[in-house]
Amino acid sequence: GMNAAVRAVTRMGIYVGAKVFLIHEGYEGLVEGGDNIKQANWLSVSNIIQLGGTVIGSARCKAFTTRAGRLRAAHNLVEHGITNLCVIGGDGSLTGADIFRSEWGGLLEELVQDGQISEEVARKNCRLNIVGLVGSIDNDFCGTDMTIGTDSALHRIMEVIDAITTTAQSHQRTFVLEVMGRHCGYLALVSGLASGADWLFIPESPPEDGWEDLMCERLGETRSRGSRLNIIIIAEGAIDRSGKPISSNYVKDLVVQRLGFDTRVTVLGHVQRGGTPSAFDRVLSSKMGMEAVMALLEATPDTPACVVSLSGNQSVRLPLMECVQVTKDVQKAMDEKRFEEAIQLRGRSFENNWNIYKLLAHQKPAQEKSPFSVAILNVGAPAAGMNAAVRSAVRIGICQGHTVYVVNDGFEGLSKGQIREVGWHDVAGWLGRGGSMLGTKRTLPKTCMEKIVENVRKFNIQGLLVIGGFEAYEGVLQLVEARGQYEELCIIMCVIPATISNNVPGTDFSLGSDTAVNAAMESCDRIKQSASGTKRRVFIVETMGGYCGYLSTVTGIAVGADAAYVYEDPFTIHDLKANVEHLTDKMKTDIQRGLVLRNEKCHEHYTTEFLYNLYSSEGKGIFDCRINVLGHLQQGGAPTPFDRNYGTKLGVKAVLWMSEKLQEVYRKGRVFANSGDSACVIGLRKKVVAFSPVTELKKVTDFEHRLPQEQWWLNLRLMLKMLANYQISLTEYISGTMEHVTRRTLSIEKGF
């Protein structure tokens, strides 16, 4: 993701009229100077967004930790007239930048005294502004939701776990997987949650004494229940209660000696740092890069050095040293064995991940049998992550003591009585499966209302959890509106939005859209590569999404597309003409390829075929054109780590909310729910998980085009256009606000 950030900072800098320099080899290049500091132009950062690592190099630098080294660095910057520095790196690099900034005045004085620069030059460069972007695969920087590179590292880990699971399954093996994280267990924790690992070791929460017996007992138990494999995930910095390291080989030997299971160790190592960046990382870095330039432009002598971060889907600025301080506090708490506190300082979402993992990994007998029955079904088109949501919902339901039913084939299955009770182990291994294991249909309830009511009565269903797309939301709305006719429908209902189109009201992200964006992005990366080879070729790529342009906009940002046509951002023949001219100009430069995305229903008359004909005839002699329709490959594939965890969390939160509501409306041995808030859509809104009544959402829905009337992601289109070199006005750009990082802010539930 670092390259996407370098690209965004460079282009935004040029865009606002600044001179941009790329410093090669990190602080080493800053100290050495010379050829390491090169002025960049628009094309310097072309075609790098899909590359892993960083094209400008990075190096650990001894010299910069000394004052003499920083003096040389200051001299090199002043020579080029550079007074704004954007640093992309971990907490070490960022702390170094802050020290450099605080010494700046003194360093310049020293250079004047040595006669290396004149008084006037020192006056002109009297202030150094610094902004940081956190690049670290560990996600160990406190205060920031996600650091650059974390999501890509999780993609690498999940690819390995999926591959290992298949061999372990065949050979009945136990695997001990060691992932990176010397001081932070984030990668181990999230991959454990996303793979349903049997046991997990993280440095923040060492196992209780006597864990060896407990772990072996538990592994033996899962095997005797018919499971053919065990996965144990261990962070490289894992320790026991006394602070002694726990090594992956120690765990392996333990399993072999006590249980005699065929056990293998896999150390993932630097695989986790490599590979092509995920869509999330590319979009995150592009957003953060744009915001970083704005933060530098708006900096005053009084603003502290800040890091740019993402909170929910909003850009924010955080004082650098506050984040560094809390990050140090975590380490100190761990060193002093205050483990509970360490987990809290990591932030609320870390703590939630840990609690949910413990809840779902092993069956704990319910305190008492509850009187409630809950049914779970999938509706609409398949979306990755549906199975993860079903799994966690089933397991939490069982933990709460409810009777849990699953329904095959959506509302149609509910009307035909395809309903069965499930147990804890029936959903084992569902996490990483794409599509829908329960089967899904687009049928809406109004076509078979009477039969649905009959089965709700027959099975005594008091809670309905519907996981699906726009039809799931519309279907529940129909059931609620039929309550006047059928008392049986006065039950608790909840919708988990799951669709690749991301077009369900009440949430910023639908389950499955992250996987779809990654699938579309991988295809476009290949298409771009083909275009680079043939020279002077423009590809027109059609994406899915119905009328919703989310998929094509976000994919467009992730692959650096020249344009993305969507229904929500109306375009005319004048816009098409401007786009063609823009590409014609682009072909005169060194980048002789173009990529244009078109959402399938963006315009009734300007079809993909029409665009192809238009571009072909206007570009005659300058470039040629090809069409690619991505189609159903956007629905398939294994769910991304984000969708596995998002599905898992939504499943847990939805069932806990349903249980609470069921208790509220339980009178004299029966459930009667008639208020608007007894049927809701659960979703992530800005920073929090919220429940919105379907009857309220009806007012803000465009049913004809199956869209929410207002969509947050439209402001991403500014970035898409700016990065593709269109002259647009930045008056609509919303700058991030400065927020503080304290123990209190860390305790707020973030939703991710």
UniProtKB/TrEMBL annotation:
Catalysed transformations (reactions): beta-D-fructose 6-phosphate + ATP = beta-D-fructose 1,6-bisphosphate + ADP + H(+)
Keyword Cytoplasm: yes
Cofactor: Mg(2+)
Domain of life according to the entry: Eukaryota
Phosphofructokinase domain location: 1-295, 374-657
GO cellular component terms given for this protein: 6-phosphofructokinase complex; membrane
Pathway annotation: Carbohydrate degradation; glycolysis; D-glyceraldehyde 3-phosphate and glycerone phosphate from D-glucose: step 3/4
The keyword Kinase appears for this protein: yes
GO BP term, example: fructose 1,6-bisphosphate metabolic process
Membrane-crossing residue ranges in chain numbering: none
Keywords: Acetylation, Allosteric enzyme, ATP-binding, Cytoplasm, Glycolysis, Glycoprotein, Kinase, Magnesium, Metal-binding, Nucleotide-binding, Phosphoprotein, Transferase
GO molecular function, one term: fructose-6-phosphate binding
Function summary: Catalyzes the phosphorylation of D-fructose 6-phosphate to fructose 1,6-bisphosphate by ATP, the first committing step of glycolysis. Negatively regulates the phagocyte oxidative burst in response to bacterial infection by controlling cellular NADPH biosynthesis and NADPH oxidase-derived reactive oxygen species. Upon macrophage activation, drives the metabolic switch toward glycolysis, thus preventing glucose turnover that produces NADPH via pentose phosphate pathway.
Protein name: 6-phosphofructokinase type B
Organism: Mesembrinibis cayennensis
